[in-house]
């Protein structure tokens, strides 16, 4: 049986690959369980300092597998239970101190939008399309879409996306701040390769620098809504003091100070 999600770790980089290409990487029960377990493993590993989230096939993620749901799910309670399982994986990524980059080629729709927003930096293809489309089949957003979308692009734009049958173009997604950048390719396959290559460049940039500091910066931004303004300032102060004591920071601060002294002479 083919694994529905793949995990590889190489020199600090964990690659999580959705692997249901024939179903546009839509979530069925098997993928939901694998997603929960694989994300938990990735963030718990001491040798993982950055995560790249990508997908096999022509699309990143079409959300929930509606066909599978209609055949295998007997009730709304079953759907709710499955959503909770997927949410565990979303929380693993978004609450971790590990930066996550997404490589999202092709179409991202429905709950796939929530999976995309698990990343802290997203790269898509120039021909990619992104949308909500839940209401088209009489369902409401899940998988963190309402929890993250307004924070990412603002409430008015979030409402435009969930209240219309609208798919954002790649340029619109960049303009709205939903993704960081879009890259081109000669055809769909080349574009998907370019998306993955650029996302890996981002991850390797983190790994080549102070990966721990990037991870803590991600944590501070992601966790801010749970704290008041003065609590956030206190957490920033605590975090920078803790970072200052790390071997990585000591070496980098010393190198910076030495370079500054040399240039001032």
Report on this model:
It is built from eleven helices and nine strands. It is α/β, with parallel strands linked by helices and 265 residues long. The strands form two sheets. A six-stranded mixed beta sheet has the order 1-2-3-4-6-9, sandwiched between helices. It is globular. The mean pLDDT is 94.
Short description:
The protein has 265 residues and is α/β, with parallel strands linked by helices. It is 53% helix and 15% strand.
Q: What is the element layout, followed by pairings?
A:
Layout: E1 5-10, E2 13-18, H1 29-44, E3 50-55, H2 66-72, H3 76-94, E4 100-104, E5 107-109, H4 111-116, E6 121-125, E7 129-131, H5 145-153, H6 155-162, E8 167-169, H7 170-176, E9 181-183, H8 188-208, H9 211-223, H10 229-244, H11 247-264
Pfam families: ECH_1
InterPro entries: ClpP/crotonase-like_dom_sf, Enoyl-CoA_hydra/iso, Enoyl-CoA_hydra_C
Organism: Microbacterium suwonense
Strand order of the largest sheet: 1-2-3-4-6-9
Strand runs, count: 9
Give the averaged pLDDT, no decimals. Answer: 94
H-E order: EEHEHHEEHEEHHEHEHHHH
The number of domains is 2
- Low-confidence spans: none
Distance between the termini: 66 Å
Query: What gyration radius follows from the Cα positions, in whole Å?
Result: 20 Å
Name given to the CATH architecture of the largest domain:
Alpha-Beta Complex
Helix content, binned percent: 40-55%
CATH topology of the largest domain: 2-enoyl-CoA Hydratase, Chain A, domain 1
Shape by Cα distribution: globular
Biggest beta sheet summary? 6 strands, mixed
**Structure annotation, total helices:** 11
Going by helix content, strand content and strand pairing, the class is alpha/beta
Relevant CATH superfamily of the largest domain = 2-enoyl-CoA Hydratase, Chain A, domain 1
As a percent range, the share of strand residues is: 15-25%
């Amino acid at each position: 049986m083919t694994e529905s999600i793949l995990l590889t770790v190489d020199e600090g980089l964990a690659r999580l690959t959705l692997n249901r290409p024939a179903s546009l990487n839509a979530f069925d029960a098997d993928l939901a369980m694998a997603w929960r377990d694989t994300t938990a493993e990735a963030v718990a590993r001491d040798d993982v300092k950055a995560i790249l989230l990508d997908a096999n096939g022509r699309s990143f993620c079409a959300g929930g597998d509606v066909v599978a749901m209609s055949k295998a799910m007997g009730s709304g309670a079953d759907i709710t239970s499955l959503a909770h399982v997927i949410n565990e994986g979303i929380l693993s990524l978004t609450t971790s101190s590990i930066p996550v980059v997404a490589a999202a080629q092709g179409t991202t729709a429905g709950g796939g939008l929530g999976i995309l927003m698990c990343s802290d930096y997203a790269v898509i293809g120039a021909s990619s399309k992104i949308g909500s489309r839940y209401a088209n089949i009489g369902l409401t957003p899940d998988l963190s879409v309402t929890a993250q979308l307004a924070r990412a692009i603002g409430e008015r734009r979030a409402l435009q996306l969930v209240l219309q049958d609208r798919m954002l173009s790649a340029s619109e997604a960049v303009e709205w701040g939903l993704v960081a950048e879009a890259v081109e390719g000669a055809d769909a396959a080349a574009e998907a390769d370019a998306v993955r290559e650029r996302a890996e460049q981002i991850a390797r940039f983190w790994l080549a620098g102070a990966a721990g500091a990037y991870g803590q910066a991600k944590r501070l931004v992601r966790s801010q809504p749970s704290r008041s303004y003065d609590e956030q300032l206190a957490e920033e102060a605590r975090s920078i003091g803790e970072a200052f004591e790390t071997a990585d920071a000591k070496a980098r601060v010393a190198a910076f100070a030495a370079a500054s002294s040399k240039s001032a002479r």
